[in-house]
Amino acid sequence: MKVRAKKTTASVAAVPPDGPVIYDSTLRDGAQALGITFSQAGKIRFAHLLDEFGVPYLEGGFAGSNERDMQFFRDAARERFSQIRLVAFGATRRVGGRCKDDPLVQALLRAGTPAAAIYGKCWKLHVRDVLRTSEAENLDMVSETVEYLRDRGLEVVFDAEHFFDGYKDDPAYALAVLRRARDAGASALALCDTNGGTLPEDVFAIVSKVREDLAGAMLGIHAHNDCGLAVANSLAAFRAGARMVQGCMNGYGERAGNANLTTIVPALQLKLRAPVTTPERLAGLRSLSLAVDDLVNQRPDPRAPFVGEAAFSHKAGAHVSGVRRNPASFEHVPPESVGNERHVVLSELSGASNVLYRLKQAGAGAADLSRDEVKRIVGELKAREAEGYSFESADASFRILVQKALRAHRPFFELEGFRVIVEKRGGSEPCLSEATVKIRVGDHAEITAGESVNGPVDALDKALRKALSQFYPEIAKIVLTDFRVRILDPKEATGATTRVLIESTDGERRWGTVGVSPNLIEAAWQALLDSVEYKLLGSARAPERPSRRRAR
Fold first, then answer.
1. Domains of the chain
2. Single pTM value for the model
3. Are residues 496 and 487 in contact, defined by beta-carbon separation less than 8 angstroms?
4. What is the per-residue pLDDT across 23-68, written as a single tens digit (0 to 9) for each?
């Protein structure tokens, strides 16, 4: 078959030849991950987030494979984007068919996007066993589809599926597929490590060889994370000459995921000095990562490089001491460059440096503390850690611990006792929990009760709020946003010590508290008390006199 020379039309964008070009596949490849589902409104919001960040290409979905993806293309056509270029994903025409009759090829045109990405086979194993056709027919499928779409004004990115496996099997044939796509008018050739099993040194060597053999072609990399090497492979490909880097936000994707763009982008910009976006936009990377997790209802990965909550966390006392003197001693980039911040973790490894740093962060007057006072705080911290407490996510409990260690804590109320009853009746009725709380605020004693079908902790929370709300109305603003239970010594079975972590907010601040006890209810009670006390610390005022006594 004779292939016409590459065409240039006004509607086809030229990919910049030197700097990295980010190609996001989150709405297509990322959405194939276990547990990842975007709403239609969420997809549009995602597109705007990436447009604001400065991503050039966004793959919106597999055209023709489902109505939801086609609806996104229709919805996106009504939106205004400043720079992002939408891409519809598809495949080469079917074996023995014609592009004009192929429903998936026609769907690419109906998507109405300025660009299309099509995947084609580069591994003879797939040609033989999956397509069940000849090598020559597969080449024609690639070139005819690319040319057909180019003739109709689309920019075409060719995804060379299983390229690295195919190249290892038969380099000549894998290169022949790329040449046919290039000569038919593809603007970029993305080399895909579809199985995610290639090592970085092999990626570098193969991309380097392809760059020599296809001089002038725009190469790309599409890496999967089955060996945990997707980011490393993407960076190796870029260093070898690939310029289009494909991936997904937060590493979403099938199986172990795709190359994580929240790691690749800062690695390119801050490590390889290859600008992807502006420094101001890069400083919004963590916020972008969190917003994307929120769109698909995923908990953020605290250990994610650059953007994770723990990415710039320091636990060992020597590390904290070093960071206080010079942050570069234990931080490879400034946290603020990617919108993150430094965290000092308090644990059994903590020393005076950790405590002083955390107190300074909390505005607790660390500079006024004597050496003996710091030593007292560290001793109390380590004693509580030995009992099973953990203050890494319990900043509010830490503040209260410090006040108690310095003998400066003024309790806002006293607990005289509580009781919890759980009742299960016959049939399908849920368990009913009733909690009774007796507290004293100054000269006033209160006994209140709370009921809940959501468990004894919720009943306790309701009873405590009833008792205190007459004295401290501001506690009505407290909302519990998370409740986590950890078994510390599981071999003790039902007698094991439990750690309860509670996260709370008043709409302005967010804080964490912790409780530890072999009794789950008592551990939860401790965390509840700290949560309320921390809120009251902010007001630091005398309680109001109740207008009337509330009966149980």
1. 24-277 (3.20.20.70), 313-386 (no CATH), 414-539 (3.30.160.270)
2. 0.67
3. yes
4. 999 999 999 998 898 988 889 999 999 999 999 999 999 998 889 8
